[in-house]
Design a protein that fits this description.
The chain is an all-alpha fold. The protein contains six helices and no strands. Helices cover about 75% and strands about 0% of the residues. Helix 1 (about 10-30) runs antiparallel to helix 2, helix 1 crosses helix 4 and helix 2 runs antiparallel to helix 3 (about 65-85). The chain is globular.
C-alpha cells in the first residue's frame, strides 16, 4: 500500500487540493453573482494557487520537472484567464461568460487531476492510460454540462450589463422590468 503523503509539501498540497475541490464545486453550484460567490471564489483562487505552488516542491514521480508540473502551469494559466476578466471588468464588455467559462474549466481540471491521482495509485496502469481515462471520464460529461451552462452564463452576463447600463441611462430597461415584461 502506498503512502498518501510523503512530505510536508505533499500534505500542504493535499489539503489545498481538497479545499480547492470543495470551494470550486460550491462556487459552480451556488447562485451567481453575489457576496457569497465572491468570497468562496476568492477562497478557491487562493487555495488553488497554493496547491499549484506546492506542486513545484513535489518531485517524487519523475525525480525532477515532469508532466504534472506542466499540467500545473496550464492550470495556472486557466485560473489567470478566469480572473483577468473579473479584475478588468470595467474595461471588458460581457466579462461574465469569459470568467465563468475559464473558472468552470479550472474546476474541471482539478477533477481530472483528482481522478488521475487516484488512478496512478492503482497498479498496472501506465501514465498515458491514467491521463486518458481521467480526462475522458471528467472532460466529456463536463463538456456537455458546460454547453448547457454556457447559455445561462450568457444570459446572466447580458442581464447584468443591462442593469449596469440602466443606472447610467434610465431609458434602458432594468432586469426587473425585463423580467416583468417577458
Amino acid at each position: 500500500m502506498h503512502n498518501l503523503v510523503y512530505s510536508t509539501w505533499g500534505l500542504i498540497h493535499l489539503l489545498a487540493a481538497v479545499l480547492s475541490l470543495v470551494l470550486g464545486t460550491a462556487v459552480l453550484v451556488l447562485p451567481k453573482p453575489g457576496r457569497l460567490h465572491r468570497r468562496l471564489g476568492y477562497g478557491y483562487v487562493g487555495t488553488l494557487a497554493l496547491m499549484l505552488s506546492t506542486s513545484f516542491a513535489i518531485y517524487r514521480q519523475f525525480h525532477g520537472f515532469g508532466i504534472f508540473h506542466v499540467a500545473a502551469l496550464l492550470s495556472a494559466a486557466t485560473l489567470l484567464a478566469g480572473m483577468v476578466p473579473v479584475w478588468g471588468r470595467q474595461r471588458v464588455r460581457n466579462w461574465q461568460p469569459l470568467h465563468y467559462g475559464f473558472m468552470y474549466l479550472s474546476v474541471l481540471e482539478l477533477y481530472v487531476a483528482l481522478l488521475a491521482e487516484v488512478l496512478v495509485r492503482v497498479p498496472g496502469f501506465s501514465f498515458w492510460e491514467v491521463a486518458g481515462a481521467s480526462s475522458a471520464v471528467v472532460l466529456l460529461p463536463g463538456a456537455v454540462l458546460f454547453n448547457r451552462l454556457r447559455r445561462q452564463w450568457q444570459i446572466v452576463g447580458s442581464r447584468t450589463d443591462l442593469a449596469a447600463v440602466s443606472r447610467v441611462r434610465p431609458e434602458v430597461p432594468t432586469l426587473a422590468a425585463e423580467t416583468a415584461a417577458g
